[in-house]
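Ticket #4471: structure output looks truncated?

Reporter: J.K.
Steps to reproduce: submitted the chain below (157 residues) through the standard prediction queue, then opened the result file.
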Amino acid sequence: MATRMDRRRTGIAAALSALLIALAGCEDATAPSADELSADVAAARAQWLASPRSDYTFEGRIVTVFFPPGPFARVTVSSGQVVSVVELPSGRALERAPFTLAELWSMIDAGEDLPIGDNRHASRMRFDATGAPRQVMIGSFANDGGRLHEVRLLQVR
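Returned output as attached by the reporter:
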C-alpha cells in the first residue's frame, strides 16, 4: 500500500516531468516555426546527404527529465571536427560538445527502428528544410529518463 509520502513523491515527479517537457518545447524566435519543420526522416536524410555539411555552427543542448534544462552551447565544426564549444550565455569554453549534427544522424540511424521501450529509440524528430535535425528524442522521459537533443541557430559555411 502506497504511503502518503510515496503519493507525494509520485505527484512531484509527475509535475516536474510535465514542467521539463513544457520547457523543452520552448524555442527561440529565430528558430524555424513548427510549420517549417518536418518529421519525415527519409526526406530529411535524403536532403542532408544530397549536400553533406562539414563546416557549420549551431547552438545545442540536451534536456533530460532529471535536471532543469541547461544552457545552450555554441558548437563550431570545421572539416567535420569540433573546433570550438562555448557555453551560452557565459562564453565559457567547454571541453566537449553536447553533440554534433553527424552524431545526431548516427543516433537517429541506430535508434529509429528500435522499440519504444529501448533507451536508444529515436523519436520526436524534427528537421529543417536542409535536412538538419532540429530536435531528436533518444529514449523517452517516461520510460528511462531519455534525452531531448535540441538544435537552434544553425549556420552552414
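Triage note (M.O.): checked the attachment and the full C-alpha cell line is present. The chain has one domain: 4-156.
Status: closed, working as intended.
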